[in-house]
Amino acid sequence: MKHRKVHLVLGSGGARGLAHIGVIEVLEEQGFEIASVVGCSMGAVVGGLYAAGFNQVYKEWMLTLTRSMVFNLLDFTFTRQGFIKGEKVFNYLREVTGPQEIENLKVPFTAVATDMLRNEEVNYTSGDLYKALRASIAIPGVFTPVLENGQFLVDGGVLNPLPLNLVHKKENELVVAVNLNGPATEEKPIQKVNKNPEAVSALWKWLHLTGQDTENSSDDISPLSDYSLRELLLLAYQMTQDRLTYLMLQVHPPDVLVEIPVNSCSIFEFYKAKSQIELGRETCQKALAATLLKEA
Q1: Which of 25, 39, 66, 142 could lock onto 10 through a cystine, CB 3.0 to 4.6 A?
Q2: Average pLDDT for 112-132
Q3: Residues marked as catalytic
Q4: Distance from first CA to last CA of the chain, Å, rounded?
């Protein structure tokens, strides 16, 4: 399989997307040529920076982040449509890399967003890279949407969390897909809400899903009793992504599927870069070995 061209599809999943960095490293180490990258949400961020030639720079920065540094990178705002603007991170990256136009990147790249007004995908194949990435990561209700050219743009994962339909491979080429919402590594009971969380502020509690606004007075406590409204909304969003990913895999099965466990880390735990990158490496190596065995 070495030295074959690969079309890489990188899915959405917040901080779990740091595993994409490890996947890319393994593919390059094993001699594959990445011919194109399609990314959604965090997959768009990692894929876009790789296509621009800044994968190593981005990795080194991610490895320096601590919990408090992640918090400081979040530019909070209080609107009806979201509470994080998301501009601070992309402004920093733009300063590091300089302006980047998608059509001029080293590797063909597509970022996927969703237009809520028209209920359709928006696929960025040209224009300002960072505008495309900002639209692609805009989780509804968390990041403020991007309003541009009469469009109301949010996270591409709303409609297409693993955009395999955008890949067109030729004979003897491979499609490698990375699903960040893979099966959990083990069954874990739903954790009770921590009444004394170690958090730097009330907003940090919100981000880490530790807030509890109501009390359950019923003796018949369900497994979801400790979930707040915020937690339930994000859980419902994740469940929708799971189903859409499953359907996409049925219709457009990739040659190699790398599945990152959904419980490997939460959406905002970017300070876990080291373990997530290593998880991406290990999972990719196993997936490639399994494909090689089938081809033998």
Answers
A1: 39
A2: 96
A3: 41, 155
A4: 10
